Amino acid sequence: MLVGLQERKIKQESVLLSRSLQNLPDPESPPYLEITTLDRHYSEEDLLNIHNEALAGTSGFKRAGSLQLEAFKASPHHDPKGVLIARIDGVAVGYCFARYIPDGPSKITGLAVLNNYRGMGIGRALLIRGLHYLRQRGAERVQLLVDLDDSIRSFYEQLGFEPDKNPPHPR
Q1: Which residues are CB-neighbours of 169 under 8 A, at least 6 positions away?
Q2: Lateral strand order in the sheet of 83-88
Q3: CA distance 36 to 41
Q4: Residue 6's closest CA among 81, 109, 79?
């Protein structure tokens, strides 16, 4: 998801989930996993590769290229420290995009793990690290958008996300 929640049209088949940033799980990672930030990672192209492989075949998927990456980085809420990249033996295998919004709820605008690395705790580690980053920046709540029929919804709910009681109205 290289498109931010604030930029995506909210469809009827999507649900906005949110949670408080109090009482977060510890940001532990499996011992084989290194999590770094975009400002310390050696290749922005890895984001495109993860996006294009991990999200291919999902609802609304569009292959991303350098133009989409530049648009993503041009967002007024882009911070390279909020782009978390998971690596195993130096290979980028997943990402989490955490966007701090000073005048409203912050957002998780993307979470993806390469297919061959799913089920290893990488997505959980990335998401929890992203939540800690947002809390450290001063955020109190976080939102994310998920398709109603997406199996990932239960993953988010296990981590304390629930349907937002005050979702924004579509324009």
Answers
A1: none
A2: 34-37, 83-88, 91-99, 106-113, 141-147, 14-20, 162-163
A3: 7
A4: 109
What span, in angstroms and rounded, lies between the C-alpha atoms of 27 and 74?
Answer: 28
Closest by CA to 7, choosing from 75, 54, 105, is 75
Q: pLDDT for 13-60, tens place per residue?
A: 788 999 999 999 998 889 999 999 998 877 888 999 999 999 888 877
The residue type found at 29 is S
* CA–CA gap between residue 163 and residue 161 (Å, rounded): 7
- Tokens 């109603």 identify what position? 148
Number of alpha carbons in the 13 Å side-chain half-sphere of residue 171: 4
- Collapsing DSSP states into helix, strand and coil, what is residue 34? strand
Using 50 as the pLDDT threshold, list the residues of the chain that sit under it. 1-12, 169-171
Burial class (CB in 10 A: 0-12, 13-18, 19+), 76: exposed
Asked if 90 and 32 touch (Cβ cutoff 8 Å), the reply is no
Percent of the chain having pLDDT more than 90? 57
Beta partners for 88?
91
